[in-house]
Amino acid sequence: MAKITHRGSWIQISSLNKEDKKNYLTSITLFIVGAFFWGIHLTSVDGILGPKLEEDATNSPMYHAARALVIILWAAAAFYQNKFIKKQDEFMQRYYLYLGAWGGIGFISFGMLL
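-> structure tokens emitted (114 positions)
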């Protein structure tokens, strides 16, 4: 089972068994790589940082591939995260629900302003 450290800031990866560690690290890695492609997508749309970089960026095959990779990588990350959470104890599952609830509150109160 995972050990929560630094007053609930993160979990100690070394406390996980081999399979849980593999699922957790795979999930985090896929999410970060998907976030990279999400950033590529954001350069093709108007946003708070200014206009898009290219005029005809929405029809570019590179941006279509980046958008498809975001969906595929984040779906795979959710799959591995779900596998990881199902094997954890009730405390760890509640911890993830708690983090998700506060993330939602943070998005509603701050993210919607952007």
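The first strand starts at residue 3 and ends at 5.
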